[in-house]
Every structure is written in C-alpha cells, then in structure tokens.
Amino acid sequence: MLTHRFPYPPVRGDSIRAWGELEYLAQRHDVWLACVDRTAPWPRHLAQARRRCRAVAVVVRSGFKSLLRGGWSLLAGRSLTEGYFFDQRLADIVQRWGASVGFDAVLTFSPVMSLYAERVQATRRVLDMNDVESCKWASYAEHGTPPLSWLYRLEAQRLPRAEAAWVRTHDVSLLVNECERAKLPAECRARTTVVRTGVDLSRYAVTAAGREGLMVPHEPIVGFLGSMSYPPNVRAVQWFGQAVWPLVKRAVPRARWLIVGSRPVRRVRRWARQPGVRVTGFVEDVRPHLRSMRVFVCPVREQIGVQTKLIEALAAARPAVVTPQAAAGIDHDDPPPFLVAGSAAEFADAVVRLLRDEAQARALAARGRALAEEHYDVADQMERIERCLCGEVEEPARTLPCAALSRACSVSLAVGMGDGVSGL
C-alpha cells in the first residue's frame, strides 16, 4: 500500500479513508506500507501502523527540496505534482521490497503514488484516486490571486495528462462518487468504479427517542470540523463567520460556534476572539465534539470529492445544514438527510430552525444515521476494494485471480530523523 502521507491518525478525509483501507486489509492479508510525508510521524502513531503491517517505510521530504523538484518538473514540461512528491529513497525501498517479496497486489492511494507503484511487480494494481486532483487545482486558481493563481492554473492544465497515464497503468481506479468520476475523460472513466468513503458506524453511538427520531443535544452549539489549513475549509469558515454566523447569533443569542480541526491558519484562529466561538486545533478524537453539537454545518462551497466530515456527522446522528456543493457529494434519496441552503440568509434560517425545532432536528438525525448505515458503512466499502484487489469486480481491465497475500519477508530499513527515512 502506497500513500502520499502517513495515514495515522485518521483525522482528515483522505487519512480516514486510507486508514480504513489499511485496517481492513491488514486483518485479512499481509500488508507493506510505504509513504512520503512532510514530517516524521510520532512514535506512538508509527506504532499503530507497525502493529498492522509487515513493514512500514516513511520517507520525510524536505519542503525546500520538494519545491525544487517540483520546479524542475514544471521546467521539463510536466506537472509540479510529479516532481514534488517523488523521492528516490522511497522509490529504492519499494523496488527492493518488490524484488524480495513478490507482491500479489499494489494499492496506490492517491494518483501521485503511481510514481512508485510502477517500480513494483505485482499481479494486480488498484488506484484509489479518491477525487480528481487536477480539478482541485482549477478551484485553487479560481479563488487565488496572481502569481499563485497562474501556477495553480498551469498545474490544472498539466496534471490531467499524468492522471490519465496513471489510470492506464492500473487495472481499475476508484473514486468516491459519480460526480468525481464524471470529471475524468471518457477513456479514463471506462477503467474506473465508485467506492464510497465509509466510516466505522460502531464508533458512533446513537440514542433513540421513540417515534420522534434520535436524541440530539439541547445546548445551541453549531459545529464544523475538518482540516483547518485546507483552503476550501478555510474559505468555508470565512464565509460562514462573516455572512451566516451574525444572523444566527441575532436570532439565537445563546448560540455557540465550535470549529474543530488541525492546523488552523491565522484567519481561522482569529474567530476564537469572537464571543461564543471556540477553535480547538488538533484533537485526537472528534467524537466528543460531534456529540456536543446540536447542529452540524458544512458551508463548503466548492464541489470537491466528498465531505468526509459530513459522513461522520450523519453517522453520529447530528442534524446538518449543508451547501448544495457539499450535498452533491453524498448519495441520498429524497427527502435529503440534511437541510440544503445556498445563500447566507437561507443557511442561517436553516440553522436557526434546527436550533429551535426539536422534532425536525430529531427526524433529521434519524434520517442521517439511516443513510450512513445504508450507504457508508466502512466494512461494505472495504469489501469492494478487496474484491478489486482480487480481480473480482467487473471492469474493462484484465482480471486475474489474486493469490493469497501471505508471503513472508524480513526487511531491514534505516531509521532516520528529520529529512530521512523511518522504517519498522
């Protein structure tokens, strides 16, 4: 399994999906994990992966060197991403593993890790794209300012060529929903399938309230969670704080706003100066904060992938208010399991209604939990990925039976500090 960052702790959308895949597969197969990251994982986090894998390699990239490699890649006519994420040390490790182990399958998490997957001989290759990265760069260009927006636009133009090549080198590629799948060219879509991002439903306890639905907190706490350095989340916080929150406070003076997520940038941290607003920063477990929320909000206004934070909120039976863009990433029937609001006034009105209307809040909580159980149970989604790895899912690429992933191998790796390699 190849990942573009160390997947533990699972506190952001991509790491939740990656760690879910690793946990499931490690219970049933022998797994070797290779990652690049900007920082070395904490020893206790590395220990979690060590307990599940036959071997773990984490190459810590220097930010300066990565930018240099990305710049050279641009000058050579390729995308910045291809140079930025490539590190010869990890390439050597996976090539050495491949020669000594003889892998049955390679699971490439994030298209850019295809740079390493191509160096490993394996019977079966599955690429978990999650979402279409080049479309993110186009969104960054739209919201950015020169000169960075020029760079983002150039990356959005160059990366699709690499993405198409990476899809062709895998037997099947996975995306989180049909919206993301539709963003790919037709020749690429033919080699893809949808596997939703699942959550472990057993981690989210819910309490029934008779025919009225599920219990929800009485305290008027409005919450949002996610990585608070991720630009779409930062823009969502800014829009909600500037355009929506004043309207909510005017209608419900006792309301409080809880912003949960790692690495909050200065623009996010500043909201903690406002009365009734709390910014937590990194938390090991989001569940206690989710349990405290009367209303979960997802004010993200860019249609990128799926909002894993929203899936978690639905699994936790939190009544939610979301933008149309966030709603588009969730598979649901009518009526939706959340309130959808586009303008600031509509969004504030929906939040206020759920703060005041106990029956509607409980009914939405029950509907959201039911949707999570039907479509977003992690076990169901992981079984689909396992079938893809074993060649049991129909797709145009060749399908070969997957041998048992049970070969034993003893791998010796260097343990480094700083810009180095961590291995166990």
What can you see in these coordinates?
The chain has 424 residues and is of the alpha/beta class. 45% of the residues lie in helices and 15% in strands. It contains 18 helices and 14 strands. The protein has helices at 13-28, 43-52, 63-75, 80-84, 88-101, 114-117, 133-143, 148-168, 178-181, 186-189, 231-251, 266-269, 287-292, 308-315, 324-328, 344-356, 358-375, 378-389, and strands spanning 2-3, 32-37, 55-60, 103-109, 122-130, 172-175, 192-194, 221-225, 256-260, 277-279, 295-298, 320-322, 339-340, 421-423. The strands form two sheets. It has an eight-stranded mixed sheet with strand order 7-6-5-4-1-2-3-14, with helices on both faces. Strands 10-9-8-11-12-13 form a six-stranded parallel sheet, sandwiched between helices. Strand 1, helix 1 and strand 2 (32-37) form a beta-alpha-beta unit. Helix 11 (231-251) packs across helix 16 and helix 14 (308-315) packs across helix 17 (358-375). The model is unreliable at 394-424 (pLDDT under 50).
What is the structure about, briefly put?
This protein is an alpha/beta fold and 424 residues long. It is built from 18 helices and 14 strands.
